[in-house]
């Protein structure tokens, strides 16, 4: 993670987060550990909990405590009561800055710990699902402090969501099932940045990809990208693998389950397991059993077998290792620089969802290119003047 490393080296000298209490709710992985190390190098006091009950790497959590002085509240496979206890433990440190992946930390502050609102100077949000929740909070006029939507940075969604998630979701499916994708029908529900990446990688593995969408622009984009586009229930009747990647809820539900073919595989690439209507799936099961690690088989009354991966949790983290470090380098560089930006701008930003400043986005891309040994051109003064003027025409 060379970009994050370069930021960490600068942070260690400049200490832009000196004394700042940072509450972090992210996937507890090796990549997140590098982000936490960077925040600590910048002077922050970090308390970390997991953004998903199944994603914690326990050895990483232990190393962050033993070797780097972070406060960590996370256990792989924790139940939901423990999950929220860990969020409360992070909030007990009275963070001045929050980092979220799914907005559970911020949601808890606004619903149960409102006394903390006056102490928090800002927060960051990593994923689409979290940004959706935060924009809803903003729309109701209830957002209590500024949030930088890291997910909306070009160096995040163009690379992490499309290339990282595209690869890691297929990695999770293949690790869990060991199935051959070539010749299979894969239905991708949602054609946002993550859905685009998944569809592209599935196509590259030889699958016939069907895209299901509710947004007409995204559906048209999928069609012009060469994918079949149809309604979800029609796709479910043919699909060998169904993947939800929308940030919404009940994306795959009762009407799809009733249409599924025998042996179909269900999985979720979104942050929350609500993308799959799991209660409806459970209701239809006459029998259920684990047939492989991360693969639960449901036998319907008519004899059809349906396979659910990773209990409906985000499959690339629950059944694999998540996005590669080379991609998370960009995402977590955004997190580190957004944290620095929020601290430097304390009191100056409105309590709403903000984009990552364009200059930070460009700096991260520049650092990544440099780490890859790639050189690009620069504009001449004349070119720059032309692009910033209105007088010069044909």
TrEMBL record:
NAD(+) binds at residues 192-197, 213, 269-271, 316. Binds 1 NAD(+) per subunit. Residues 161-322 form the S-adenosyl-L-homocysteine hydrolase NAD binding domain. The keyword DNA repair does not apply. Its EC number is 3.13.2.1. Coiled coil: none annotated. One of its GO terms (biological process) is one-carbon metabolic process. Its cofactor is NAD(+). CDD domains: SAHH. GO terms for cellular component: cytosol. Gene3D superfamilies: Adenosylhomocysteinase-like, NAD(P)-binding Rossmann-like Domain. Pathway: Amino-acid biosynthesis; L-homocysteine biosynthesis; L-homocysteine from S-adenosyl-L-homocysteine: step 1/1. It is an enzyme of class 3 (hydrolase). One of its GO terms (molecular function) is adenosylhomocysteinase activity. The keyword Amino-acid biosynthesis does not apply. Substrate binds at residues 29, 101, 126, 156, 160. It catalyses: S-adenosyl-L-homocysteine + H2O = L-homocysteine + adenosine. Keywords: Hydrolase, NAD, One-carbon metabolism. Belongs to the adenosylhomocysteinase family. This is Adenosylhomocysteinase.
